[in-house]
Design goal:
230 residues, alpha/beta, 4-stranded antiparallel sheet, 12 strands, 41% helix, 22% strand, phosphorelay response regulator activity, phosphoprotein, WalR-like, OmpR/PhoB-type_DNA-bd
Length: 230
């Protein structure tokens, strides 16, 4: 099996050297760019399995790089930054990042986060791989969602959240339960992460109106509602 390829886009060369050393020991192949624009070009050339992305970059900043990557790929992105404000975390998630790590980096945690995100991007052992509802098909094997025979583009995390909710139709889950089940128990983010992804899902599904919808249960959480017509 070929090593998984990690692209690190970070302008701090000493940190890049440490990340590469540590990830190489864990069996990953590591590519490095110190410039946002060059990092995008390297992404297109090398097709990595995951991107570690700093925010403060020359050329293009990390927000711009994240936007551009999401235009062409759903490959996982983990933001690494010294910016610890909630606004920055929410912005990163809204732009399509899958996780957010604040410096100084703890390398064991970094490896755990990388492995967790990669597992979620390529899930194994799912009991049911395809969920079929009137007008909607959610396929976990191919990571596709089809609504009224039209494929909808979702990020990996959006699809995983939709798949989990749809796997338990009409059951209400709290935000914390969704964090634990979809992001993993080791995820350090807040329940606001769930709200951001739910909002993005609704925006993408809104043009394709149908009976199966993500509903808010006020004071509790969310559910995937399936209506049964008499």
């Amino acid at each position: 099996m070929m090593n998984q390829k990690i692209l690190v886009i970070e302008d701090a060369k000493n940190l890049c050297d440490l990340i590469k050393l540590y990830l190489n020991k864990e069996g990953f192949e590591v590519l490095i760019s110190h410039n946002g624009l060059e990092g995008l070009k390297l992404f297109q050339q090398e097709a990595p399995n995951l991107v570690l992305l700093d925010i403060m970059l020359p050329g293009l900043d990390g927000w711009q790089v994240c936007r551009e990557i999401r235009k062409m790929s759903d490959i996982p992105i983990i933001i690494i930054t010294a910016k610890d404000e909630e606004f920055d975390k929410v912005l990163g998630l809204e732009l399509g990042a899958d996780d957010y790590i604040v410096k100084p980096i703890k390398f064991k945690e970094l490896v755990a986060r990388i492995r967790a995100v990669l597992r979620r991007f390529h899930p194994t052992g799912l009991e049911v791989n395809k969920l079929v509802f009137p007008g909607m098909v959610i396929d976990a094997d191919t990571y596709t969602v089809t609504v009224n025979k039209q494929e909808i583009t979702l990020s990996p995390k959006e699809l995983e959240l939709l798949y989990f909710l749809a796997s338990h139709p009409n059951k209400v889950f709290t935000r914390q339960q969704l964090l634990d089940q979809v992001w993993g128990y080791d995820f350090a983010g807040t329940t606001r992460t769930v709200d951001v992804h739910i909002e993005r899902l609704r925006k993408k599904l809104k043009p394709h109106r149908q009976a199966n919808q993500i509903k808010t249960v006020w004071g509790v959480g969310y559910k995937f509602e399936v209506r049964h017509d008499d």
